[in-house]
Amino acid sequence: MPGRSGPPPKPTALRLxxxxxxxxxxxxxxxxxxxxxxxxxxxxxxxREIWEYTLGELDAMKIATAADRDSLICYxxxxxAHRKASAILAKSQVLVKGLHGGLVRNPALxxxxxxxxxxxxxxxxxxxxxxxxxxxxxxxxxxxxxxxxPFAATG
Length: 155
Description:
Blueprint lengths: L11 H6 L27 H16 L8 H23 L3 E3 L5 E3 L1 H20 L3 H5 L21
Antiparallel strand pairs: 1-2
Helix pairs in contact: 2-3, 3-4
């Protein structure tokens, strides 16, 4: 995402496992509520379809939380925008006649490219790519085993 350079930081749980210096570990890292995000009303059906599929994958990886709702909506909307732009490009040319009669890039190409970048960025954050998954550790919890702060005993 813009404004950040270098690789994304390791999750705190992984830093603890690797024995990082305690001075470099955020002991006050916010812990999101461990509940499934809910899709707000008024979301388009095609976005809802992507939401259900993606949330199912995040649930399977045990990393979906309510705090991710708005980022997940942005991801789903980007997937829908990419699909629509791709459908337009499949029926037209990459270069189209411009305002002054010359050839210009099809505007759908810009929409497709921007949506693909957005998808990639959010997919990395959510662990929806192979490299994204390699950077995430998920605690496997069930039922009443949900701690309020798993980092409380770290020093």
